[in-house]
Amino acid sequence: MKRYWRLFRPHYVETQKLALPVIIAQVGQITVGLVDNMMIGQLGKSELAAAAFANTLFALPLIFGMGFSMAITPLTGIAFGKSDYFSLKGLQKGAFTSNGLMAIILALVCWGLYLTMPHMQQPDSIIPHSRSFFSIISLSIIPLMIFLSGKQLAEGLSNTKVAMVVTLMANVVNIIGNYILIFGNWGAPALGLNGAGISTLTSRVLMALCMLWFIRRLAPLQKSNARVSFKRAINHVKEIIKLGIPMGMHMFSEASAFIVAGIMIGWVSDTGLAAHQIVMSLSTFGFMLYQGIGAGTTIRISQFSARQVPILMRQASNASLQIVMAMVFIISTAFILLRNWLPQLFTNDAEVIDMASKMIVVLVIFQLFDAIQIIYSSILRGMADATIPGLLTLISYFGIAIPTSYWAAFIGGYHEIGIWLGFPVGLGVCALLFHFRIKKLHKRAMQATLIKS
Q1: What pLDDT is attached to residue 50?
Q2: Alpha helices of 216-309 — where are they, by DSSP H?
Q3: pLDDT value of residue 452
Q4: Residue 293: CB atoms within 10 Å
Q5: Between vectors from CA 162 to CA 158 and to CA 163, what angle results, nearest 5°?
Q6: Left (φ > 0), alpha (ψ -120 to 50) or beta: where does 269 sit?
Q7: Where would you tag: which of 300, 354, 408, 426 has the fewest CB atoms within 10 A of its CB?
């Protein structure tokens, strides 16, 4: 046991050191999301359902953009691991250029979604509120992509504190803005749901401006004074796009499966849609904690990959899995014990509370597989492996999870709960496929090391 502890302890320490600022920022962001839903919930069930629908649609372009941006981290980590400061300078320009182009594309996608919202078979009572709210928050996609450019660059340089500081500052602004604009406090007009949208947009603009200020002061990006040519910058843009599109599809496939599930729940009832929004908010708490460990894992794997030390890559991977398994046990226990009380933080509607408490039981089942696949995908991301994982994710969610959800809900007769039953199936298959992919890549890396030696 002592030998085992000595072997993994350095990996526990380093991974958690990188992950902690990410987790703090994520928990802060989740807290704001919970507060948002609590405040919106006071306006009524229709407003809460309207926000759920609008946020669900906005997540489509946002999640793809987040996945696309993640390509910046392993590329930066590999260059940093090799102490290639000239490439880091080029990646800085390439990151903001590629994300800027993607922001324009995603803004156009948001416009298309806005136009098609009335035709998505949602309850008529929520459509006007949803469209108005969506039109405001969709503007934030551009500042968010600017923020993500700097965030992923900094994380590739093993600096996860910058994004934490910026995110926490913006969270405070968002909460204060909600208090003022939703209910009309401090002499402001009571804007209701639109007030929450304006507050969100303002906080995200602040995030972009602060990140631009911070990123210019990161020491590793200042170590090369060489001027990066336009051709060199374009090469980095192409590199990011080549890796970023499959990473974006990977994230999009996973997230859009939950989004499609939310839309299907809207076909059943607005009570189910409100309960779905509540439980998704709760599930995000665990998801973001696991994502924090995943971010630290990606950074460490990318740097070990640059140094060509597959044994350390394997040890770091196993250490990350062990950390999230401990987290899953603690969080699952809390959810089960508090499943009847947690929904009451969002609403006093008895039907919504009952439905949400049942969904929490399914949440506890699927988050085990979710945690595993998050770490596996982070390992693959650190190895700059994106195309195959993207295809495996697409198969797992749209080939297995969504059909299972549809069958359980509309054929099996489990209704809203049936839609949630597809999640653990898809996540479990995805985790298993990623496991085999990682084994293959580790074996290939070990063989390359033996040949080189």
Answers
A1: 79
A2: 230-268, 270-307
A3: 60
A4: 26
A5: 100
A6: beta
A7: 354
pLDDT in tens, 148-183: 999 888 888 888 888 888 888 888 888 888 888 888
Q: How far apart are CA 132 and CA 172, in angstroms?
A: 24
- Dmax (CA) for the chain in angstroms is 72
What's the one-letter identity of residue 18? L
For 92, the token pair is 């800085």
Q: What one-letter code names the amino acid at 446? A: M
Rounded distance, CA 76 to CA 235, Å? Answer: 14
Average pLDDT, the chain: 82
Dist CA 335 CA 343 (whole Å): 11
Report yes or no: 296 and 15 within 8 Å, Cβ to Cβ: yes
**Residue for token digits 């014990």?**
337
List the one residue out of 160, 155, 142, 164 whose CA is nearest residue 96.
142
Provide the token pair at 201: 């947009």
CA dist 147 and 108 (Å) reads 19
What is the spatial distance between Cα 60 and Cα 253, in angstroms, rounded to a whole number?
A: 9
Residues 262, 285: Cα–Cα separation, whole Å: 18
From residue 191, how far is each of 39, 53, 143, 179, 408 by CA, in Å? 12, 19, 23, 11, 40
> Quick count: other Cβ atoms within 10 Å of Cβ 127?
16
Amino acid symbol at 258: F
> What amino acid occupies position 342?
L
- Residue 9 CB-density burial (10 A; 0-12 exposed, 13-18 middle, 19+ buried): exposed
pTM: 0.77
Asked whether the predicted pLDDT for residue 448 surpasses 70, the reply is no
Q: Which residue has the tokens 């350390």?
A: 312
309 CB burial (10 A radius; 0-12, 13-18, 19+): middle
At position 442, the amino acid (one-letter code) is H
- The pLDDT tens digits for 76-116 are 888 887 777 777 778 888 889 999 999 999 999 999 998 88
